[in-house]
Amino acid sequence: MYVLYSGDQIFVQDMVRKVLLEVADEQRCDELRALAERDSPQMYRCLFFLLLDFHARFRYWVLDERQGTGLQPVCPFKAVRFLKHLRAHIIPRFLVNETVRLDELEREIKVEYVRS
Q1: Partner of 32 for a Cys bridge, out of 24, 79, 81, 109, CB 3.0 to 4.6 A?
Q2: DSSP state of 73
Q3: How many domains would you assign to the chain?
Q4: CA gap 115, 97 in Å, rounded
Q5: What was the pLDDT predicted at 43?
């Protein structure tokens, strides 16, 4: 909820940028490095959830309330249901259908998070 609704763009952007740069280094991917230089709060919010699905270390760091991430703890049952739907439906639809815009992806994430 904090990432989607707080309006704390700097916190989200810094967190996502750090992970993007780590992945860019690990995978030797200059495109990710270039993406980390963009200034788009909505893109960073959406990337947060893409990384939450694809990057296991990031997911465990975010969901482990003992890590002191600055994020509110999430109910484990809610997190499991949301992450399953994110992986099975939301992200594949976004990646396969090039007509899905970031605002639509973000809206779908918000709806599913509340529904979870």
Answers
A1: 24
A2: P
A3: 1
A4: 23
A5: 92
Whats the size of the chain, residue-wise? 116
Cβ neighbors of 43 (< 8 A, separation 6 or more) are 35, 102
Residue 106: CA count within 13 A, CB half-sphere: 16
* Other beta carbons within 10 Å of 96: 8
Token reading at 3: 């990432």
Contact by Cβ (8 Å): 115, 1: no
Neighbouring C-beta atoms of residue 16, cutoff 10 Å: 24
For the chain, the straight-line distance linking the first and the last C-alpha, in angstroms and rounded, comes to 12
* Number of neighbouring beta carbons within 10 Å of residue 47: 23
User: Residue 63: what residue type?
Assistant: L
Full pLDDT tens readout for the chain, 116 residues: 778 878 788 888 998 999 999 999 998 988 888 888 888 899 999 999 999 999 989 888 888 766 666 677 777 888 899 999 999 999 999 999 999 999 999 999 999 998 98
Which string of DSSP letters, residue by residue, matches 45-68? HHHHHHHHHH-HHHHHHHH-GGG-
